[in-house]
Amino acid sequence: MRIAFFDAKPYDKPSFDKYGAENNIKFKYFETKLNEDTVELARGFDGVCVFVNDTVNKEVIDSLYKDGVKVLALRCAGFNNVDMKYAHGKIHVVRVPAYSPYAVAEHAMAMLLTSIRRIHKAYIRTKDFNFSLSGMTGFDLHGKTVGVIGTGRIGRVFIDICRGFGMKVLAYDKYPAEGLDNGDTVRYVELDELFQNSDIISLHCPLTEDTDHIIDEKALEKCKTGVVIINTSRGALVDAEALLAGIKFRKVGAACLDVYEEESDFFFEDFSGHIVDDDILARLISMPNVIVTSHQAFLTEEALSNIAETTVQNLLDFFEKGECTNELCYRNGETKDCKTGKCF
Question: What does the mean pLDDT of the chain come to?
């Protein structure tokens, strides 16, 4: 079995080589992203493996279908970069619904603590032997209210971490998790109540038509002054321009961003010797109360191993059994996990 592996990075290869060799799967690594200009590289392969910033639109799907590529293996949970409606009936799409929810949830909390306790600033200061505490005052997390949008595996782990800090949780999800709401320290609420009463808001939901710019100007108007926004999910959940305005007008107290809505042009690459021509990203990074990391929340040894193992198993299930429980299906206007094992 030969798989074209796009947007390959050095940290991807050890785990995929290991599990591939054990299961007679040969990965051909391409550093370039998959898009209309590079899709011809997939010709002659049995399947393609892509990540969050690869583009799988109508043109790419048509080309893959014409060349006989049967399966698109997402090595991630999100699928907003795939035109799922158009893919239906042409190419099977499988994903990794859970790799290490702890990796992402722990990174979200690490960013939050770094921000509110000014750890990043203290690190820079002490490197210059500056031990002044001026401007370093933070606040306790204990007793604060955190709004968690999205209560899947990652959201629930983040909630557990927050509860360990003695925080109260307001949760929102289109599909509430059974048994999570205890009527006290964790409650499901509507979005308006979450916005109005949360000191901190953390996003752990997929990017869909309903969640696109779920944090926008109107949402921020409803929030408390000084609210902290955390996004480790998908960049377009947050209207970056509205967030920047909220920071400038002191509505948003801090922002912790591991993702950015236009990140595909910059993230995972080194631009240290270049001028970044995205003014919004440049201004966000320049803000003293904004922390930006480069979509690295998933990047732990455990998560990389889990991603490779699950991706390889998805490919084996599809080619050897003709079905995969991690397949995505587009039905009745929505993309869902294929519970039957066969999508078409």
Answer: 95
